């Protein structure tokens, strides 16, 4: 499954649609402005909130929390010892599952893996549409909304780190 994200409008307070590879709107990322912490909502085409994404207020490292239905789903933070390229860990709420996100986050060229198995590839390399990147969900049983939320989180954290 391929989803297309228009990159140029990514930011807090901005809303943007994520489309499938046929141009159909699938998800809306609703950035919430004027909040104490960075907040996004991932909604379906009917306007129902599928996933909430919030910056964790009190953490040693920048951390984003992904929730579904008010329940924690995952926590996203930069890996401590990552010297050569951007590397993030996604700890799922089940306590034992970790996703690994690595690559050139700011260039929109990275992958999401679980236990060495590829779940999704985020890339703008093969697209001709300017300021757009693709989220290719590789595994059929993967949760596309969660993987898109992970991509939104790591890009937001990387951009925030670059600003600091």
UniProtKB/TrEMBL annotation:
InterPro entries, A to Z: LOR (IPR007612), LOR_sf (IPR038595), Tubby-like_C (IPR025659)
Superkingdom: Bacteria
Gene3D superfamilies: LURP1-related (2.40.160.200)
Family: Belongs to the LOR family.
Entry protein name: LURP-one-related/scramblase family protein
Source organism per UniProt: Streptomyces atrovirens
